[in-house]
Amino acid sequence: NSRGTSSLLKDSIPITEFSASGPFEGHDLLRRGFASVKNELLPSHPLELSEKNFQLNQDKTNFATLRNIQGLHAPLKLQMEFRAVKQVQRLPFLHSSNIALDTLRGSDECIGFEDILNDPSQSEVMGEPHMMMEYKLGLL
């Protein structure tokens, strides 16, 4: 995912924990698709793993090219800026757009798949703010 959603979602709680139905909720076909053991074991398409690691591979290639052209200091400075920008987040129950990270990567002017169809993990369903903050702070 080109927007770094893994860093966005690492501190959040899955939304299913805050559902009104509780533990007796059925499988949500619209969000998760059909349940199958085969789909959980193997990727559904040979290019799926490549697409999941696309941004990481692109960053590695860009850093290697930058190192060859400008020296070791340039990719180190850029990686430091990436880490500083990734640390700035909104509260866990609000979606962070990470516009500064997109600007550093040069993808702020590109329209991608996630801009139109969005990621199902970032649905409009929001959990309870107090519970999510307590979970992030380790109070739960």
TrEMBL record:
InterPro entries on file: Ump1
Gene Ontology BP, a term: proteasome assembly
Entry annotated with the keyword Acetylation: no
Keyword Lyase found: no
Name of this chain's protein: POMP protein
Protein keywords: Chaperone
Similarity field: Belongs to the POMP/UMP1 family.
One Pfam family recorded for the sequence: UMP1
